[in-house]
Amino acid sequence: MTGFIQLGAVFVIVSLLVMIGLSVAVYVGGSRRRSGPEYVTFEEGPEVVPLQSERREQPEADLFQPERDPEPAVTHPIHEDSGALDRLLAGVQLPCGLERLYPDGEDELVRRAYVTVGYDARVVAVSVVDELERLGMDIEPLSFTEARAWRDGLELAVTIYLEPKRVIRFRRPAFPGAAPDSVVLEFSVA
Question: What residues pair up with 161 in beta bridges, in sequence order?
Fold first, then answer.
């Protein structure tokens, strides 16, 4: 029985010495690396961002304020007898280079689709919500890709499709003209 106790004590002592040695090696190795500048890199691009000590003075590009199209979402005159979608979209300046998409079988009085390439879906979503709020709409997000907007007793459904080529309606592609890497924004009367 004393042999097992001695063997256990030797095992514990050796384990402690190994842990102490590894801790010292990590501490010493880490202090050498800390003397140089620290950087964070992102897998999406080759850009290197310096941390704390080496901030470079660069003009700040506002990534969350994309350019706006000079053309509004509704280009024809709006009257009191215009449809709900026309009245809701009146005055909307489309951000992120959104262009009108004309899917087959789309009823313009109920649904309109817009497409853009080269913008992240999150930037498109935030920019569209900002534009709708600018026009006085109340926005309620339902998920990452859907929201509802209200104004003057009318309700607008806003949907963003991250993979528009995969959207099927009535047994056929809903957005056949959309590029594979595009983002589609759809407004519809809810």
Answer: 184
* CB-based burial label for 98 (10 Å; 0-12, 13-18, 19+): buried
**What residue numbers bound the domain in which 86 lies?**
69-189
Instruction: Report yes or no: 97 and 73 within 8 Å, Cβ to Cβ.
Output: no
The residue ranges of the chain whose pLDDT is under 50 are 33, 39-42, 44-61, 69-70, 76, 79
47 and 85 housed in the same domain: no
User: 41-80, pLDDT tens digit by residue?
Assistant: 445 444 444 444 444 444 444 555 555 544 556 554 554 6
User: pTM for the complete prediction?
Assistant: 0.58
Residue that is last in its domain, among 30, 54, 78: 54
User: How many domains are there within the chain?
Assistant: 2
Question: Would residue 62 count as lying in a domain?
Answer: no
Length of the chain: 190
Is there a domain that residue 30 lies in? Answer: yes
Distance CA 41, CA 49 (A): 6
Distance between CA atoms of residues 132 and 160, nearest Å: 15
Rounded to 5 degrees, φ, ψ at 99 are -120, 150
